[in-house]
């Protein structure tokens, strides 16, 4: 979320003609490796998290509580991306923010590795904070490597960068998941800390190859703003400390005293952000119209992510208790299912890119709205597929692993239809005043979706029951059909955006 800056002079190893990493500036290698190791640590820990929460040798929680904790954690990561971008823009600059974020993430994983429930939740909080700080700023630094938005290498650079994300996400469950499940849970979390440590070390060593502007604070806080921000932060922190001290000493404290406020924030804050932007009187009529259209995409995306992110919680917990996790008689760790999505992304993303180009040449490429609606329908179909292994398990048998692979495959195709389109439409429809904030607004759709899952779990809803799964599947399909049916209205609101 960096503000626009004047063009920096070309220096070796930063934006310019040097091509040292797949034809791109050498700094891309630094950011590629940093993101790969951060995703390795994040996805490895995430693959272990729900399994550890329900395991006899873990926290031994019920499935509903485990799903609530997982959902709150994921929603926080995306919710904190907005203040993370604010820190990069106003306080530390992107480079320093990412360095601090890496250290916080590493400390969080080390805290998770300690065999105590109290430190475990503190570790989750640290990882969420660090991930929010890093997520919002590292992509900004990739953009800084190139000579403006018209640099012909720019799109290719982001493609290489996102390969790092999927490489880390693919390898993590295979390494961290295997060690965590088969050797020791806390050793698995420690491996996640080691991965982030490797990423942080190479980032610090290779940061000299980054663009100079990555060290600049685009819009630093004034002294008055610093004082006001610190005062407000201290007041809110004090209120929280006093409140939870009273709750704790009164003897009525349970985990829900943390989970419920966080899940409510995950729903309320996205709504407040959208309402504030929509009510801004400085926006012209065209911008207001585009924001009205964007709300359709936002709500639909929240429904999508509500179901999609259950691939790491509801599906994982089901696989742990009710699936035959084997291929040709060879049994594999449950956490390995979390490697299915990234390997499919790497395999299918180039295929989709080719298909869209081929259809575009013939004038037959589906519109943004049709792609979005199709992604929603597919994530609904994935949960209709989920009804089959649920029925098999209810009959007293173990469901075959390929049922779960089919579900993840369907969700991945849906993701490739919806997620890139959502990112693109967010940048195209952003009002000029909020250009640097709108990517954070898109992440809030993930927050809202996961927070809704958390609220359902806290309310005691068993998300592994056929009735609930069928209801969620129907909701997604109906939402997708509604977007498609009203595509004319949405298209009109979008104005010149296509």
From TrEMBL:
<dbReference type="Pfam" id="PF00854">
    <property type="entry name" value="PTR2"/>
</dbReference>
<keyword id="KW-1133">Transmembrane helix</keyword>
<keyword id="KW-0813">Transport</keyword>
<feature type="transmembrane region" description="Helical">
    <location>
        <begin position="400"/>
        <end position="418"/>
    </location>
</feature>
<feature type="transmembrane region" description="Helical">
    <location>
        <begin position="467"/>
        <end position="486"/>
    </location>
</feature>
<comment type="similarity">
    <text>Belongs to the major facilitator superfamily. Proton-dependent oligopeptide transporter (POT/PTR) (TC 2.A.17) family.</text>
</comment>
<dbReference type="InterPro" id="IPR050171">
    <property type="entry name" value="MFS_Transporters"/>
</dbReference>
<feature type="transmembrane region" description="Helical">
    <location>
        <begin position="258"/>
        <end position="277"/>
    </location>
</feature>
<feature type="transmembrane region" description="Helical">
    <location>
        <begin position="369"/>
        <end position="388"/>
    </location>
</feature>
<keyword id="KW-1003">Cell membrane</keyword>
<feature type="transmembrane region" description="Helical">
    <location>
        <begin position="336"/>
        <end position="357"/>
    </location>
</feature>
<keyword id="KW-0472">Membrane</keyword>
<feature type="transmembrane region" description="Helical">
    <location>
        <begin position="233"/>
        <end position="252"/>
    </location>
</feature>
<feature type="transmembrane region" description="Helical">
    <location>
        <begin position="159"/>
        <end position="179"/>
    </location>
</feature>
<feature type="transmembrane region" description="Helical">
    <location>
        <begin position="98"/>
        <end position="114"/>
    </location>
</feature>
<protein>
    <submittedName>
        <fullName>Oligopeptide:H+ symporter</fullName>
    </submittedName>
</protein>
<feature type="transmembrane region" description="Helical">
    <location>
        <begin position="289"/>
        <end position="308"/>
    </location>
</feature>
<dbReference type="InterPro" id="IPR018456">
    <property type="entry name" value="PTR2_symporter_CS"/>
</dbReference>
<dbReference type="InterPro" id="IPR005279">
    <property type="entry name" value="Dipep/tripep_permease"/>
</dbReference>
<feature type="transmembrane region" description="Helical">
    <location>
        <begin position="439"/>
        <end position="461"/>
    </location>
</feature>
<dbReference type="InterPro" id="IPR000109">
    <property type="entry name" value="POT_fam"/>
</dbReference>
<dbReference type="InterPro" id="IPR036259">
    <property type="entry name" value="MFS_trans_sf"/>
</dbReference>
<keyword id="KW-0812">Transmembrane</keyword>
<feature type="transmembrane region" description="Helical">
    <location>
        <begin position="120"/>
        <end position="138"/>
    </location>
</feature>
<feature type="transmembrane region" description="Helical">
    <location>
        <begin position="67"/>
        <end position="86"/>
    </location>
</feature>
<feature type="transmembrane region" description="Helical">
    <location>
        <begin position="185"/>
        <end position="205"/>
    </location>
</feature>
């Amino acid at each position: 979320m960096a503000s626009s800056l004047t063009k920096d002079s070309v220096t070796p190893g930063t934006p310019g003609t040097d091509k040292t990493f797949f034809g791109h500036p050498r700094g891309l290698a630094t950011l590629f490796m940093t993101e790969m190791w951060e995703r390795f640590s994040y996805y490895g820990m995430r693959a272990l998290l729900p399994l550890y929460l329900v395991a006899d040798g873990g926290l031994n929680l019920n499935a509903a509580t485990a799903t609530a904790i997982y959902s709150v954690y994921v929603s926080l990561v995306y919710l904190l991306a907005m203040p993370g971008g604010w820190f990069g823009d106003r306080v530390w600059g992107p480079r320093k923010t990412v360095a601090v974020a890496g250290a916080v993430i590493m400390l969080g994983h080390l805290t998770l590795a300690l065999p105590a429930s109290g430190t475990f939740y503190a570790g989750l909080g640290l990882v969420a904070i660090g991930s929010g700080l890093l997520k919002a700023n590292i992509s900004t630094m990739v953009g800084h490597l190139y000579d403006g938005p018209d640099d012909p290498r720019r799109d290719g650079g982001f493609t290489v960068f996102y390969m790092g994300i999927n490489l880390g996400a693919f390898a993590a469950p295979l390494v961290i998941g295997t060690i965590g499940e088969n050797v020791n849970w806390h050793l698995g979390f420690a491996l996640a800390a080691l991965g982030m440590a490797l990423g942080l070390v190479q980032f610090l060593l290779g940061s000299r190859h980054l663009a100079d502007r990555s060290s600049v604070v685009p819009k630093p806080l004034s002294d008055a703003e610093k004082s006001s921000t610190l005062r407000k932060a201290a007041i809110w922190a004090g209120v929280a400390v006093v409140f939870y001290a009273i709750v704790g000493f009164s003897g009525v404290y349970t985990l829900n005293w943390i989970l419920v406020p966080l899940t409510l924030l995950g729903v309320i804050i996205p709504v407040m952000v959208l309402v504030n932007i929509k009510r801004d009187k400085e926006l012209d009529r065209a911008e207001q119209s585009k924001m009205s259209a964007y709300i359709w995409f936002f709500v639909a995306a929240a429904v999508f992510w509500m179901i999609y992110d259950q691939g790491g919680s509801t599906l994982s917990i089901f696989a742990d208790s009710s699936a035959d996790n084997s291929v040709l008689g060879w049994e594999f760790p449950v956490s390995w299912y979390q490697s299915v999505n990234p390997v499919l992304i790497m395999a299918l993303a180039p295929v989709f890119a080719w298909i869209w180009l081929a259809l575009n040449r013939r004038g037959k490429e589906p519109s943004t709205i049709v792609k979005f609606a199709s992604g929603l329908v597919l994530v609904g179909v994935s949960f209709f597929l989920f009804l089959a292994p649920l029925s098999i398990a209810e009959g007293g048998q173990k469901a075959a692993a390929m049922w779960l692979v089919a579900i993840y495959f369907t969700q991945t195709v849906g993701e490739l239809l919806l997620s890139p389109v959502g990112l693109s439409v967010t940048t195209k429809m952003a009002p000029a005043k909020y250009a640097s904030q709108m990517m954070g607004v898109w992440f809030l759709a993930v927050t809202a979706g996961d927070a809704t899952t958390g609220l359902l779990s806290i309310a005691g809803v068993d998300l592994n029951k056929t009735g609930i799964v069928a209801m969620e599947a129907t909701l997604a399909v109906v939402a997708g059909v509604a977007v498609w049916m009203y595509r004319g209205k949405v298209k009109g609101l979008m104005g010149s955006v296509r």
